[in-house]
Design a protein that fits this description.
The complex is a heterodimer of chains A (228) and B (448).
Chain A: H1 3-11, H2 17-26, E1 34-37, H3 40-50, E2 54-60, E3 72-76, H4 79-96, E4 102-109, E5 115-124, E6 128-135, H5 138-141, E7 146-150, H6 155-164, H7 168-171, H8 182-198, E8 204-212, E9 219-221, E10 224-227
Antiparallel strand pairs in A: 1-4, 2-3, 2-4, 5-6, 5-8, 6-7, 8-9, 8-10
Helix pairs in contact in A: 3-4, 6-8
Chain B: H1 4-11, E1 15-19, H2 28-38, E2 44-48, E3 54-55, E4 58-59, E5 73-76, H3 83-92, E6 97-100, H4 111-123, E7 127-129, E8 135-138, E9 143-146, E10 153-160, H5 163-175, E11 180-185, H6 194-203, E12 209-213, H7 220-231, E13 236-239, H8 245-255, H9 262-272, E14 275-277, H10 280-292, E15 301-305, H11 308-320, H12 330-339, E16 350-351, H13 358-368, E17 376-381, H14 388-396, E18 403-407, H15 411-423, E19 428-429, H16 432-442
Parallel strand pairs in B: 1-2, 1-5, 5-6, 6-7, 10-11, 10-12, 12-13, 13-14, 15-16, 15-17, 17-18, 18-19
Antiparallel strand pairs in B: 3-4, 8-9, 8-11
Classes of the chains: A alpha+beta (228), B alpha/beta (448).
């Protein structure tokens, strides 16, 4: 069991996003540049280090759906915008849930240019941990165009999950689209699978979205939830 | 876990007792005893009945303890409440296995009674099939301890959670003279389950294909491991009803199965190579073809037909499944045009038209099997073609390419010829769609 999971279980809450990124890093999974800030000053420092534009997200054990709580501000261009966004997020979140425990605000690099994918994990009643893959947005939500495989996962399984979805041609560069880094996506899925196998306390996991860049350009998780 | 050697001893039992044997033809205890006798069982049979001296001309004994020798298999048809005592007696007679046909256990909430019976069985290493099941049938031992009476020996081992689905598979295999190695109804699956049986029949030399009907999987990881291991030895076809929400609810109340997501089970099939059937018909067709033929080397199929309409249906189904109908080479086409009457359509499907005789099929197939762009041949007989079986038997002896038949619209000739084809190891199906779907399943077979 990873130390962060042990700590979260002891405190009876799920991993927050900063902890999820730390867990990911320990398994060699790429994470966006990020820094947890507990004041506007800390946030300014973080943005200076990461470089504008940045994204700011609430970190609270009581808030699972950050956007619903008004806890996300994107495309912040400068110090002034950052200061405004910081206060707005705190205000929104407390209006959404007045007793929310605020652990801070995560300042992240603003990523662009990736095709949005989703990787999820659920526990099946018969087969245990099961990985899901799909393209983001309407592909998963409306068309339910997703594929599943149970763990343990082989590289072949990961690749077949990617090729199985109906919209897979979008990843392979059909109709004037650029071909995406399918291999890096498969590698990511394998690492996620190993992380899940090592930590059976993980009940549910979402990487949504995960950007996949042009072939050779790799992938980058943009948002992650790890439920215990 | 029940050991393979225990299962081997049970299926190859030399001594069988039927506890609750009855002289009343309406009772299961009569039917099962009669089926064991009528199937030609060669071992010794001991019916147990408190009052009767003999049933069906066989000496009865008041209890298992009165039987003069140890027993390999005890078949139990007495009411549930009496089963613990019978199981204890079976243990005293060193029984290797017990088939509990009686119901009235876990399935109606009598969990404690079932646990009591299983406690005795497990303490004495008795393999339990059931309770609440339809029995077992192992043709190499001519042991039909179930109903209906089925005896045709073949290469299909049917492991069925549903007794009716198992009996249906056996019945069709018997009618079509395909045969089966085993029919096992699992019932409540308290003792022997699909894991042990998959493992056992993977190594059973009589068995060419395993047909597995389950409603739920208890230990998914163990299932995957065993399935992969079995699939490294022979094909496994799986029928798992409960694909939909309503179906899953029905499965849950039928056998208290754990219903995982069907999408996840579908994924498991892809990961392991399990060949999934949607309904009983495909379950049978896939098992049948897989027990008879090796996989073609590729996905290119030639369709030869006397019925244009049937040829189109075959082409449709083939395209749905990604089976290719390539055009024959100019050279082969020219040779076909030379020997065939003008009305024939020399293409793929190759339409020999409604007046085609066995001789015309033979001439066309003779040329067609030399083609390098086909991996398998579907021969459709759409009329009462006499001696059709002679043609396909002769052709399949001269080529490694699998030959599959669809025979329809052939009346009594069809019935006769289809059986002759099956005897020769050539699978025939009643529609082109079923034949092509079966070929689709055959394409999933590995080289063993």
């Amino acid at each position: 069991m990873h130390k962060l999971i042990g700590k979260a279980l002891a405190d009876e809450y799920h991993l927050n996003e900063a902890e999820a990124w730390e867990l990911f890093s320990d398994y060699g999974i790429p994470t966006p540049q990020h820094q947890l800030a507990r004041s506007v000053e800390e946030a300014l420092d973080a943005a200076k280090r990461i470089g504008y534009p940045v994204v700011m997200k609430i970190v609270s054990r009581n808030i699972l759906h950050k956007s619903d709580a008004g806890g996300v501000e994107v495309n912040i261009m400068d110090d002034e915008g950052l200061s405004e966004a910081y206060h707005a997020i705190i205000e929104n979140v407390l209006a959404y849930k007045s007793d929310a425990v605020i652990d801070g605000i995560l300042v992240c690099e603003m990523l662009k240019g990736g095709l949005e994918c989703i990787i999820g994990m659920t526990q099946d009643a018969s087969f245990g941990p099961t990985l899901m893959f799909g393209l983001g947005g309407i592909f998963v939500e409306v068309l339910e165009d997703v594929s599943f495989r149970v763990l343990p996962l082989s590289k072949e399984d990961a690749l077949s999950m990617i090729y199985e979805i109906k919209a897979s041609s979008l990843l392979q560069g059909a109709r004037g689209q650029v071909a995406r880094d399918v291999d890096a996506m498969a590698e990511l899925m394998l690492k996620v699978a190993i992380m899940i196998e090592d930590n059976p306390e993980i009940k549910e996991l979402d990487i949504n979205p995960c950007f996949v860049f042009e072939a050779g350009g790799g992938i980058m998780p943009v948002d992650a939830r790890v439920m215990l | 876990m029940v050991k393979p050697e225990t299962l081997h001893a049970v299926l190859n039992a030399k001594t069988v007792s039927v506890v609750g044997a009855s002289s009343n033809p309406d009772k299961t205890g009569y039917q099962v005893l009669k089926n064991i006798l009528d199937a030609g069982y060669q071992g010794r049979i001991y019916p147990i009945n408190l009052k009767a001296e003999s049933i069906l001309d066989i000496n009865c004994y008041p209890s298992l303890l009165d039987v003069p020798e140890d027993l390999d298999l005890v078949v139990i048809v007495v009411p549930a409440a009496a089963v613990p005592e019978v199981m204890q007696q079976a243990a005293d007679k060193n029984a290797r296995g017990a088939v509990i046909i009686s119901g009235g256990f876990r399935e109606i909430g009598n969990v404690e009674l079932e646990n009591e019976v299983m406690g005795i069985a497990n303490a004495h290493d008795i393999a339990v099939i059931g309770p609440n099941c339809q029995g077992i049938n192992y043709t190499p031992n001519k042991l039909c301890a179930c109903w209906p009476l089925l005896t045709k020996r073949g290469g299909m081992a049917v492991i069925a959670q549903s007794g009716t689905i198992g009996a249906t598979m056996g019945g069709w295999a018997e009618d079509e003279e395909i045969g089966f190695s085993a029919l096992l109804a699992l019932g409540n699956k308290s003792g022997v389950g699909e894991i042990e049986l998959l493992d056992y029949f993977a190594s059973d030399e009589e068995t060419k294909v395993i047909a597995l009907n389950i409603e739920g999987v208890k230990d998914g990881r163990a299932f995957i491991k065993t399935a992969k291991s079995a699939l490294s030895k022979k094909p496994v076809v799986v029928l798992k009803p409960g694909r939909t929400r309503k179906g899953a609810e029905a499965a849950q109340s039928h056998t208290k199965s754990i219903a995982g997501s069907d999408k996840v089970f579908e994924a498991v099939c892809k990961q392991t190579g399990l060949i999934r059937a949607e309904g009983i018909c495909e379950f049978y067709d896939y098992s049948k073809i897989l027990s008879m033929l090796d996989a073609p080397l590729g996905r290119r199929m030639l369709v030869i037909t006397s019925s244009g309409g049937s040829g189109i249906l075959a082409a449709d189904t083939a395209e749905d499944l990604g089976i290719e109908l390539k055009q024959l080479s100019t050279d082969i086409k020219d040779r076909l045009k030379e020997i065939l009457p003008n009305q024939c359509v020399v293409s793929n499907p190759l339409d020999l038209t409604g007046d085609a005789t066995a001789n015309r099929y033979m001439q066309a197939l003779d040329v067609a099997i030399t083609s390098e762009v086909i991996d398998c041949i579907l021969v459709i007989f759409g009329d009462p073609v006499h001696k059709a079986s002679d043609v396909v038997r002769d052709i399949s002896s001269r080529t490694d390419k699998p030959i599959v038949v669809a025979f329809l619209g052939g009346g009594d000739v069809e019935k006769e010829e289809v059986l002759l084809m099956h005897q020769a190891g050539i699978p025939a199906f009643p529609t082109p769609e079923r034949a092509v779907r079966a070929i689709g399943a055959l394409l999933k077979k590995k080289n063993y």
